[in-house]
Design a protein that fits this description.
This protein is α/β, with parallel strands linked by helices. It has a domain of 77 residues. The protein has 10 helices and 12 strands. The strands form 2 sheets. Strands 6-7-8-3-9-10-12-11 form an 8-stranded mixed beta sheet, with helices on both faces. It has a 4-stranded antiparallel beta sheet with strand order 2-1-4-5. The longest helix is centred in the middle third of the chain and has 18 residues. The chain is globular, with a radius of gyration of 21 Å. About 7% of the residues have low confidence. Bound molecules: adenosine-5'-triphosphate, iron/sulfur cluster (SF4) and magnesium ion (MG). The site of iron/sulfur cluster has 12 residues, from loops.
């Protein structure tokens, strides 16, 4: 894995219009992805994961902050058109069916969407067959209609489609959430295998912490558009430092934190959106103190380079052990640890 960041997201803020108001969906989010690395974005529904992916793809306007891809500022839709045309940043979404034309055979649908890139029709077709083989699809799939494929096959088509332009970064937005558990592991392993061969970088979006941990080197934990914690995947998933991450871990199918220890309060009658000055998690935090309601927590850097935004976190007292694999916490195997670093 190279140290060169392929993508640097700094202070990203995205607001959506709701009537006359502009409502922030993502606030001051920063992270970077190195070549061959996977950074996972995790958080409950509405935490801004997809919005971050869409901002990277240039599909939503950016209110503040910057997105630098391969050393070029590509913030916002206008700048992004060029990079997207070059196919350097691609996406695999949860529902591949929605982006395949049901009335066309798969090959025609892909050629329509991806273009031929200056190749002859025959060369494009041969490339598709080759890519389909690499993602474990029989070559006959190129002439099949999308409705005849299984969910797993459609997702493999989506992966092949993303690879058509030899991208450097793929945004994987919940790519296995709609698949059967048995097929999920196959598709996750396929993504990892392709990454190894091509030194691809992934931004992997998910709400299942086990899946995100399996795929990621580094995890960014989001809550209502704010980063509450980030760090090496195994540390975040096994020795979470932030109360919200502990709640996420406790809620996972293989908790390493006791659910009783960290039961969060139900969402308070106080609208969390009203917490504009304090910690966004305060209305649900079981260990909140007075200052949490009035002051935004500082972002502290942990000994391993991770970040924690919590008034109660003290990096000096951080004795987080080197993470060990969690019993049964991964669908297939545990990813390799990443070296401590500064982000
Ligand atoms: N097009 C839009 N217009 C207005 N608000 C939007 C739009 N898309 C998303 N939002 C809001 O932005 C916030 C973040 O949404 P986003 O889809 O990024 O979250 P998410 O983490 O991907 O959620 P999920 O896990 O459900 O996919 C939510 O409050 C959502 O309601
Ligand atoms: S800052 Fe306060 S409310 Fe927020 S997570 Fe930490 S202890 Fe809880
Ligand atoms: Mg989403």
């Amino acid at each position: 894995m190279s140290d060169t960041p392929v993508l640097e997201v700094s202070g990203l803020t995205v607001e959506y219009r709701r009537g006359r108001k502009r409502v922030p969906a993502v606030s001051d989010v920063s992270f970077s992805i190195r070549e061959g690395e996977t950074v996972g974005l995790v958080g409950e529904s509405g935490s801004g994961k997809t919005t971050i992916g869409r901002a990277i793809l240039g599909l939503v306007p950016v209110s503040a902050g910057s997105i630098v891809f391969d050393g070029h500022d590509v913030t916002g839709p206008a700048h992004h058109a060029r990079r997207r045309e070059e196919g350097q940043i691609r996406a695999v979404f949860q529902d591949p069916y929605s982006s395949l034309n049901p009335s066309l055979p798969v090959a025609a649908s892909l050629a329509e969407e991806c273009g031929t890139g200056g190749r002859s029709r025959e060369a494009t077709f041969a490339r598709m067959v080759d890519l389909f083989e690499k993602v474990g699809l029989p070559s006959t799939v190129v002439s099949s209609y999308p409705g005849r494929l299984s969910g797993g096959q459609r997702q493999r088509v989506a992966i092949a489609r993303a690879l058509m332009s030899d991208p450097r970064l793929i945004i994987c937005d919940e790519p296995v959430s709609a698949l059967d558990v048995s097929v999920q592991a196959q598709v996750l392993n396929l993504l990892r295998q392709i990454q190894r061969v091509r030194s691809l970088s992934y931004c992997f979006v998910g709400h299942d912490l086990d899946v995100v941990r399996y795929m990621s080197d580094w995890i960014v934990v989001l809550y209502r558009g704010h980063v509450l914690e980030d760090g090496p995947a195994r540390t975040v998933a096994q020795s979470p430092r932030h109360p919200y991450t502990r709640a996420l871990v406790a809620a996972s199918p293989h908790p390493v934190v006791s659910p009783e220890d960290i039961a969060t309060r139900p969402p308070s009658s106080l609208n969390a959106a009203m917490v504009t000055t304090g910690c966004p998690f305060a209305p649900r935090c079981p260990v909140a103190i007075d200052v949490c309601w009035t002051e935004r927590p500082p972002v502290c850097t942990a000994p391993d380079g991770g970040k924690v935004a919590c008034h109660r976190y003290d990096p000096v007292k951080d004795t987080t052990p080197t993470a060990e694999p969690a019993a049964g916490g991964s669908p297939v195997e545990v990813p390799a640890p990443v070296a401590p670093r500064t982000r």
